[in-house]
Amino acid sequence: MTAILHIARGEWQHMLRTRLAVTIIVMLLALIAVAAASSAQQLVSESQTREAYQREAEATFRSQPARHPHRMVHYGHYVFRTPAPLAVIDPGVDPFTGRSIFLEGHRRNTAAFAEARETSVLTRLGVVSPAFALQVVAPLLLILLGFTSVVRERERGTLLQLIAQGVPARALVLGKAAAIGSVAALASLPLLIGVMWLSIRHPTEALPALLVFAGHATYLGFWVLLITVVSALASKARSALITLIIVWAATTILMPRIAADVAATAVTSQTQTEMDILVQRDMRVVGDSHNINDPGFRSFQDQVLEEYGVDRIEDLPVNYRGLVSLQGEAEGSAVMNQYAAELHATQRRQATIINLFAIASPYLAVRNLSMRSAGTDLINHQRFLDAAEAQRFELIQQINTVHANEVLFADDSARSVDHESEQRTRVSGDFWHRLQDFNFTPQPASDRLLAALPLGVVLALWLLAATVLIRRVARKAGEA
Amino acid sequence: MSLIRNIQREARFVGANRTTLAACLALAIMCLLAIVLGQAEISRQNDTLERTLSQSRVELGEVFDAATDYGGAAYSGFSLTYNAPAEAAFLAIGQRDLSPWMLRIRALALEGQIHESDNFNPELSLAGRFDYAFVIAFVLPLFIIVLLYDVYAAERDAGRVAMLTATAARPGRVWLARVLVLASGAALACLLPLWLLGLVFGAGAGNLLSVTAVVLANVVFWTLVTCALAFGRWAASVNAAVLTGIWLVLALLVPLAGKIMIDRTVPGVDGARISLLQRETVNGAWDLPKAATMEPFYASHPEWAHSAPIDEPFHWKWYYAFQQMGDEAAEPLSRAYREAIRERDALTGQVAWLSPPVAVLRAIQNIAETDMASALEYEMRIRDYHAQIRHFFYPLLFEEVPFERKNLEGFPVFSAR
């Protein structure tokens, strides 16, 4: 143990002596600090804006004057996505997804206004966030810091000298790893502080936050061991560096893109436009609920007449137009949800393929683990879309019920041609107060942990592999 | 003459080096793969487009056949607009996996339709695409560093520098030749796949020449940077580390710093504001007297001012008039939104001066017509087409022409460029 510490201290002194090492450490810490600060600031202002918009949209809806209920179906409502608390650490797919959805009758809209559109060229390798700094930049900087650690001693001939002095080879290799590892620990310290602060502010997020930290710590641990192993195996410093840079570029820069392209090619997905056309085609079968004589509602009409025991729709105790709106929306929503469910399943299959590539890239393992735990992944985006749809359906059917119960059929039929009837079809603005607040609850922590678990296992295996390697290398270095 | 002989000798020498050959081969394979994957994506988009176009035509025909009045036909008659991939789009997917390249629109207020996004899988967008532009901008520099960082140090450490320079009449020529051979190796590894597949996939020789110029400029830049250090006093491993650091700063850190800077200087218009305003104006019209809509509408469309006054609570011409007034109310915000995007794009262009990888990406996306300018141009074409649709229906609505199916025959078709 003391021998390991001795070697680690020596390596530290070497790092501090070389200006390169000091530069790297300062760069790494500065980068993480800037990323955390900018990410936190952006998230806070983003959250406040979304929150304010949401309240404003709700207030505007509730303050609408007396209107025909179907006007309110088209007036619609907006819901906004507020970022998950852990998005400060890992924004995940947030910059690539729309931030607001317009809820209206007859349509299931997409989320509009994604941020990434605006400066995409600059963020093609990643967005500013602590997760990006630790997942992509930190390994490269650790490589620059540590590639000479063991091989330097070999090149100078001090390796054999040390072993001859009685330093165990194991202590030598582990000591070097400890020195590089301490820099990695220093780099992940801001993350630990952030995780603890977030856990206090959002106690339910404590476990996922801890997993995010554990994932990054494991990932950096993997790199520390790999760097030491490669440095110990190399005969020349430059071949150690080249090997490590190739591994880094292949796993961190190339693999994610190849995985995405493979996923997109293997599982083809429908564009929104194609889906819209198919929905429109299917909706023709359902019928246009604005037209009560649409053939699509003929059997519905018979059924209603029978249920109420009357012969003509004019004799119904409720407004038949409202009933058709209710029925049309229910059938239409079922059609749209079916397409949406297919799309979501397709996208999840694509995500699963990308997940499989985690076996070939520890970066993908930690990236996906982190966004799955943080709740900033595809699954949570889809959850937001589904929650918005649920809110839409409930709101529209609430209004359609008002339409059926509060508007007289005779007035409703004459409203386009007769001013007095039109006036009578306007129902009190009090009905709009019934709008429910939009409360999107992110996926429960336990589900997120479950989704992240397989990736955690893969990451642990990567660390295990590196540990096995370093033990072998330590033995071999002793034989040399 | 002696330079050419030097080059020939160096080419033989370098050709015998297995690591160098392997590196060039790996680069060439990556370029091939990137082009093939890019082409796969673009041909998928072309197939989708073709399929959707015919579906959309059929659907529009069905809607028109079922229509009983012009207002209803305009209400349900969606038609397809699209931004077809340009010849060289497979070299850089660019905005085509972020911005919609197909959009169905109808005669209603456009601001409520034009900001719709496509349903891209965000976990695919997150990774970005593996296209040729990416390989040239980000991966090629790393290969040049690997090939050249020890061009001098390797000989120095092997003790061959004295021998090499003693036998040469002009020592500088020896190094120049070797650097030229290695840099050309990297350039050829990128350019051969480009021309081979580029011509097969029909990118057009002019585009390929422009991309070639970008590749060569990039090779020259990184060769110069690498050589500036490679012929210095430092050890090879220090050179390699410093060069990787330079790559890290230029490829990753400068763009991210630029992003933070741009976010601060041009905060951008919140898109949600546009749709909120448009919706208030359009829906508010229902509660206003007809004149409140028709007077401003006739002011901006005097050609229809003679149309008969509206007595009924509902008339389609009033309906489409307030749709248009909604667009006109949101116009300043919408314009500001586009301006903000343009301004951010211009600032990104300035960041490119400090970051060659960003400059390369922008240049190739520009040639491939998948850049922001092309996405915005598509948006403007949608706006023009929407105006055509409106003006197709206005005479039918405002002259109160009796409904006949054949009057819908002249419905404008979106023209691809």
Distance between the termini of chain B: 52 Å
Quaternary organization: heterodimer
Query: Largest chain interface and its two residue counts?
Result: A-B, 103 and 96 residues
Question: Low-confidence segments of chain A, ≥5 residues, pLDDT <50?
Answer: none
Task: Measure the end-to-end span of chain A.
Answer: 22 Å
Average predicted confidence as pLDDT of chain A: 89
Q: What level of helicity do the residues of chain A show?
A: over 70%
Spatial shape of chain A: elongated
With strands numbered from the N-terminus, the spatial order across the biggest sheet of chain A is 1-2-3
Shape of chain B: elongated
Largest sheet of chain B: 2 strands, antiparallel
Number of domains of chain A: 1
Overall residue-averaged pLDDT value of chain B: 90
Portion in beta strands of chain B: under 5%
Rg of chain B:
29 Å
Radius of gyration of chain A from CA coordinates: 30 Å
Q: Which strand order do you get reading across the main beta sheet of chain B? A: 1-2
